């Protein structure tokens, strides 16, 4: 028995000492494109002939697999048979290992106690170096054994300090992952530079450094002696060795992105902190957590600087600061060798990874600044970077560490400048705590503490910053540092302005921000040079006596002409606003190509509506003003100062002044855009005169707002469009600001707004969002546009929030002026073209027009629905003069929408006429197919593919057309996971059926996609509103509704007719309206058909898709409220995957969000009903691309590109459902 035991022990020792050889083993890089391909590869994972070097995470992501010689023929056959993309990454693994081993064997070893950056040092060499430093530099270096590895190696930490306790500390750990050999050299270089380079001694005077160069010594040594790519610790398990230390920390341990299977690379351990290595890091960190202000985990590879979180895509509370500091690190490194790091949270930028050290450091130890540094890679595997690259990597990374030091020093040690914090109170208690600071002179609230969960900005003096941070941390109030050094920012901006070459008097420039006097001189010069079209008028004087100039551009012809009015620079600091106003003026007056734009429409523009404030933002040293602290030197130590004004001292902002300059009892200025007399000061405006949005002591207390008021009221019957030019934010806002209720002409405001946004986007890709002030931005009562609509009766009123830039958003660089003004001009052209339609404003006007309806010379294209709502009427040549005289005599707003109807029709008809009709039973994506052609195609598929295709008539339209549904399935009985899609609910959206048909075509007739209906059924209605669809072909191209007759008008909007919050908002009770919701829910046979089918299969349908156009939105519920659905995170995540897949094809960019938040209120839609009643959690409206003249009349030449890119999104939908409901991997 004893002999046997000895024998077994000898065998065991022999086996343990033998290294595995990999002669003729190959490494393949394989990229699965479908779930079928992924499943084939997954089946190999437990086969001993296959070693997966990287995870099979997602489709279209490469995975590296080492394959034994015996299995290579079989494997290559498999790849060829299924046409799986692949390449040979390593043709002989053993040869590669031998080459690397040879290099290591012949590398000169480092002298004991020394450091080298020409080779990768072994654990013992590193320990010897640290111990030598402690011996040679005892005044600044101490070493500490913070723990022992499983195999008994010391985990050594070095502390570099000038002495003292409780000092601000930077902590760094390297080589948690054993194979990441570049990590120890970086840690050692930082240590070397701090200790042995006297030029850097300043870096440990006030800040201590605690660094662990090799946090996983067992694994690190094992990667040198045995398995080069070993990642984990060496703790033995029941089957396999080792735990991933960077999944072993006790914060959201093993919830996602970590494995419970001990043989996996990301095995999280049998329990949190199961490893002595992670326990050592934990215990040291907790002992010093109050001192550690920056936690760094040094890894490789990837060129990422990652911050928390890894378990969720939610961003941490101090994202802005983490990004800002991360960018400083990245910029410092880039300046050396051009190496570019990407910055972001682990889950958003890389992948899910729960239980990491940085997540634990922030989430448990409370260290707000925590990063993983993913250093450069190289070599064959990425981790085996060549030793020749050590020096450049450590040198460039050192510069990033210098940036880290400087930031920590300025934030926690040398606090001598003012900072701006962004703070978000979540409860009344938190708000009360912050409110108590408002009267403390150390705190200046830049924005109002308006509402819970709404961020506001507060500037804090140097003396109060530690107190403030302790306060917000103790109450767990969310905060971040918005501006780290206010004075430095001001100096940078002032220097730019000071060094700018001024413009010649009377000229205009778009290379610089012009001053008030220069702008006035330009307006006067235009009046002098172009007297036939330009007049200037002083419509008022500012408090300080400056003239408020308005320029009028007109072809003449007397009064009562349709007018577009624009005011800019109401808010003083918004410097980009005057250039936009001036560019519009310049293009109208000095570019003869645009002379048509003032023939029938006048323009009235105020380039600088708040001249006192505007000049105040330019003057960096106003007379009679003293800085904080009395006689200290100018420039100020903050961007705030006090003015001596009798017995009062009042704060003002230099660069960021927003208000007028009217003096109050305590502070200067009123926010002009809260001073208009419409719901004045009811919400979103302040009664406290020192606030940024102080509404004034009365409405129209300011001479500037009085000037705008008086001019507008004088011409209110002529002004058809009111524009307030502001910045920054890329919003086009319409009323109201005092309520989330939508205005009566929301549809029109949205439609025109979207035309503006599309025109601007077409220039540089700048994306505007369109919506009401209160719904899209915030509450703001007393604004100029609300007053213009609510009091002056100007129905079309917008605030244009131009692009921002610079540090604060308002300090956009002058180099960007040209691009901004050019793209905005395109939007102004749209405004002009729109204003130039017939809009009755009174019953009298409507009656005059109504009398024309039976005259054969007039053809009303759209209904005369309501006052102040434009409609279109076609007029014969014989009647045009009479018509124009009529509308002018009654002062009815009108414009020419189409100058030559026949030409437009011929163009469109010619396209249709010259299109070869599709052969019966076939499909085409070169043209828009008619209803009968679509039905014939569905029937042919059912005939040719009976094993997978069935068609079903699920209902009949009002005019008796069959509503066809096609079901694609591999069979296998009922209760199968199903994707449901309906298209062409809105008749005019011709691009919707081709998308539905392409999905059907790809599923049925492309055998490569057969895997997509093996486990998931598809139920698709290509034309859900066949009557309306045919009517758009035969009669009215822009028809939207069904064709059910009403008492006055035809049709109901099917997508407002579903019985979930039916007609509560965003739907009409008037049957002639486009959004008429029907006389009852489900009044339409079309919506009943959809309802009945869905309810029959509601337990199987996991995804409901409503295919619409146009807009490039992927919308999810709700449409009746801005509240988000309970699964908003999932809807956003899946939606973004769809958007990314589509974008990858042609660059088409979709926006993802709820209907009410992203688009407009729309109650009674199919997706709201699908989720709210049928219980289908995943429900989207796909708003496809638009085009043509109206948006819905996209050209047939674009069908192919649209359907192909949208198909990629449908693949994403399939894969997600497969993973969630079939494969169970989500």
TrEMBL record:
Record's keyword annotation contains Signal: yes
Coiled-coil intervals, chain numbering: none
Cited CDD domains: M14_CP_A-B_like
tRNA processing in keyword set: no
Cofactor: Zn(2+)
UniProt xrefs under Pfam families: Peptidase_M14, Propep_M14
SMART domains linked: Zn_pept
Family matches, as PROSITE patterns: PEPTIDASE_M14 (PS52035)
Signal sequence bounds: 1-16
InterPro entries documented for this protein: M14A-like_propep, M14A_act_pep, Peptidase_M14
SUPFAM superfamilies according to UniProt: Protease propeptides/inhibitors (SSF54897), Zn-dependent exopeptidases (SSF53187)
Domain Peptidase M14 positions: 119-408, 512-835, 927-1217
Domain of life (superkingdom): Eukaryota
Keywords: Carboxypeptidase, Disulfide bond, Hydrolase, Metal-binding, Metalloprotease, Protease, Signal, Zinc
Active site, renumbered: 374 (proton donor/acceptor), 801 (proton donor/acceptor), 1183 (proton donor/acceptor)
Similarity annotation: Belongs to the peptidase M14 family.
Protein name, entry field: Peptidase M14 domain-containing protein
Annotated organism of origin: Molorchus minor
Organism ancestry: Eukaryota, Metazoa, Ecdysozoa, Arthropoda, Hexapoda
């Amino acid at each position: 028995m004893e002999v046997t035991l000895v024998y077994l022990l000898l065998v065991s020792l022999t086996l343990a000492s033998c290294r595995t050889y990999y002669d003729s083993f190959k490494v393949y890089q394989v990229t699965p494109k479908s779930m079928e391909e992924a499943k084939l590869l997954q089946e190999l994972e437990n086969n001993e002939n296959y070693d997966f070097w990287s995870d099979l995470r997602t489709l279209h992501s490469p995975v590296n697999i080492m394959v034994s010689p015996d299995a290579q023929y079989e494997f290559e056959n498999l790849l060829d048979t299924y046409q799986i993309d692949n390449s040979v990454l390593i043709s002989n693994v053993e040869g590669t290992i031998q080459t690397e081993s040879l290099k290591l064997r012949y590398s000169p070893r480092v002298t004991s106690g020394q450091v080298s950056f020409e080779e990768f040092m072994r654990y013992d060499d590193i320990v010897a170096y640290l111990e030598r430093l402690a011996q040679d530099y005892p005044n600044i270096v101490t070493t500490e054994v913070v723990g022992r590895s499983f195999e008994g190696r010391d985990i050594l930490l070095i502390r570099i300090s000038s002495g003292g306790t409780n000092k601000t500390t930077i902590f760094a750990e390297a080589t948690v992952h054993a194979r990441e050999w570049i990590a120890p050299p970086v840690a050692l270089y930082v240590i070397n530079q701090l200790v042995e380079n006297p030029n850097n001694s300043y870096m440990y005077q006030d800040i201590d450094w605690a660094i662990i160069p090799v946090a996983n010594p067992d694994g690190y040594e094992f990667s040198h002696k045995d398995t080069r790519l070993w990642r984990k610790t060496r703790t033995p398990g029941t089957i396999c060795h080792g735990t991933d230390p960077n999944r072993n920390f006790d914060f959201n341990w093993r919830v996602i992105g970590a494995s419970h299977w001990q043989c996996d690379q990301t095995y999280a351990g049998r329990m949190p902190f199961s490893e002595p290595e992670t326990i050592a890091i934990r215990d040291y960190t907790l002992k010093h957590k109050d001192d550690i202000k920056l936690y760094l985990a040094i890894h490789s590879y990837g060129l990422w600087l990652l911050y928390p979180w890894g378990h969720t895509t939610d961003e941490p509370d101090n994202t802005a600061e983490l990004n800002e500091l991360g960018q400083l690190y990245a910029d410092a490194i880039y300046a050396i060798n051009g190496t570019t790091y990407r910055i972001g949270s682990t889950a958003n930028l890389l992948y899910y990874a729960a239980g990491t050290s940085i997540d634990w450091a922030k989430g448990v130890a409370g260290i707000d600044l925590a990063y993983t540094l993913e250093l450069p890679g190289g070599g064959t595997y990425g981790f085996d970077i060549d030793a020749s690259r050590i020096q450049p990597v450590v040198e460039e990374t050192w510069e990033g560490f210098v940036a880290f030091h400087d930031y920590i020093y300025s934030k926690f040690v040398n606090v001598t400048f003012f900072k701006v914090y962004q703070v978000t109170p979540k409860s009344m208690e938190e708000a009360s705590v912050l409110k108590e600071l408002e009267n403390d002179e150390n705190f200046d609230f830049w924005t109002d503490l308006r509402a819970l969960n709404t961020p506001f900005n507060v500037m804090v003096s140097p003396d109060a910053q530690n107190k403030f941070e302790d306060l917000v941390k103790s109450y767990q109030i969310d905060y971040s540092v918005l501006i780290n050094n206010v004075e430095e920012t001001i100096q940078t901006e002032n220097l730019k302005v000071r060094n700018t070459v001024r413009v010649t008097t009377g000229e205009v420039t778009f290379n610089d921000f012009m001053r008030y006097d220069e702008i006035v001189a330009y307006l006067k010069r235009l009046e002098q040079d172009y007297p036939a079209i330009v007049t200037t008028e002083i419509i008022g004087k500012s408090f300080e006596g400056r003239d408020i100039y308005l320029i009028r551009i007109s072809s003449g012809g007397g009064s009562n002409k349709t007018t577009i009015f624009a005011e800019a620079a109401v808010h003083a600091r918004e410097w980009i606003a005057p250039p936009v106003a001036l560019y519009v003026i310049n293009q109208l007056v000095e570019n003869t190509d645009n002379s048509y734009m003032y023939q029938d429409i006048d323009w009235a523009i105020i380039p600088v509506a708040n001249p006192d404030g505007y000049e105040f933002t330019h003057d960096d040293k106003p007379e009679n003003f003293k800085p904080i602290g009395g006689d200290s030197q100018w420039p100020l130590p903050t961007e705030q100062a006090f003015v001596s004004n009798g017995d009062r001292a009042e704060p003002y902002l230099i660069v960021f002044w927003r208000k007028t300059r009217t003096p109050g009892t305590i502070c200067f200025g009123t926010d002009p855009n809260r001073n208009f007399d419409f719901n004045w000061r009811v919400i979103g405006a302040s009664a406290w005169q020192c606030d940024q949005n102080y509404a004034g002591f009365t409405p129209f207390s300011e001479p500037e707002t009085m000037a705008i008021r008086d001019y507008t009221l004088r011409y209110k019957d002529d002004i058809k469009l009111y524009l307030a030019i502001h910045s920054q934010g890329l919003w086009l806002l319409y009323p109201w600001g005092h309520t989330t209720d939508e205005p009566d002409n929301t549809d029109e405001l949205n439609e025109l707004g979207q035309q503006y946004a599309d025109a601007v986007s077409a220039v540089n890709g700048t994306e505007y969002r369109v919506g009401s002030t209160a719904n899209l931005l915030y509450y703001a009562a007393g604004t100029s546009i609300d007053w213009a609509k609510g009091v002056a009766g100007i129905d079309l009123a917008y605030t244009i929030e131009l692009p921002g830039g610079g540090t604060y958003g308002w300090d956009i660089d002058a180099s960007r002026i040209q691009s901004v003004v050019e793209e905005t001009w395109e939007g102004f052209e749209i405004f002009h073209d729109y204003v130039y339609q017939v809009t009755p404003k009174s019953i009298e006007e409507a009656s005059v027009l109504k009398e024309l309806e039976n005259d054969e010379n007039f053809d009303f294209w759209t209904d005369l629905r309501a006052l102040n709502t434009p409609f279109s009427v076609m007029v014969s040549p014989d009647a045009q003069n009479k018509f124009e005289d009529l509308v002018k005599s009654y002062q009815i707003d009108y414009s020419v929408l189409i100058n030559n109807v026949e030409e437009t029709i011929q163009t469109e008809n010619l396209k249709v006429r010259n299109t070869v009709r599709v052969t019966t039973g076939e499909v085409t994506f070169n043209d828009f197919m008619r209803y009968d052609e679509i039905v014939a195609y569905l029937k042919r598929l059912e005939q040719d593919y009976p094993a997978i295709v069935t068609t079903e008539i699920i209902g009949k339209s009002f005019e008796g057309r069959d509503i066809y549904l096609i079901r694609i399935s591999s069979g296998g009985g009922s209760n199968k996971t199903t994707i449901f899609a309906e298209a062409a609910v809105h008749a005019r959206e011709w691009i919707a059926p081709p998308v539905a048909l392409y999905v059907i075509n790809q599923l049925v007739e492309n055998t490569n996609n057969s895997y997509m209906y093996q486990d998931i059924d598809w139920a698709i209605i290509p034309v859900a509103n066949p009557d309306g669809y045919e009517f758009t072909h035969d009669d009215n191209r822009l028809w939207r509704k069904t064709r059910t007759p009403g008492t006055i008008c035809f049709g109901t909007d099917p997508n407002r007719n579903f019985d979930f919050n039916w007609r509560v908002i965003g739907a009409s009770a008037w049957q002639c309206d486009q959004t008429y919701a029907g006389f009852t829910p489900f009044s339409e046979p079309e919506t009943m058909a959809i309802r009945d089918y869905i309810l029959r299969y509601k337990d199987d349908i996991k995804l409901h898709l409503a295919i619409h156009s146009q807009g490039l939105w992927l919308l999810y519920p709700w449409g009746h409220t801005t509240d988000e659905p309970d699964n908003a995170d999932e809807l956003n995540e899946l939606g973004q995957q769809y958007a990314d897949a589509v974008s990858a094809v042609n660059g088409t960019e979709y926006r993802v969000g709820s209907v009410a938040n992203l688009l407009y209120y729309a109650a009674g839609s199919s997706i709201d009903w699908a989720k709210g009643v049928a219980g289908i959690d995943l429900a989207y409206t796909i708003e496809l691309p638009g085009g043509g003249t109206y948006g819905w009349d996209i050209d047939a030449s674009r069908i192919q590109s649209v359907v192909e890119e949208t198909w990629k999104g449908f693949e994403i939908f399939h894969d997600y459902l497969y993973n969630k409901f079939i494969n169970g991997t989500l």
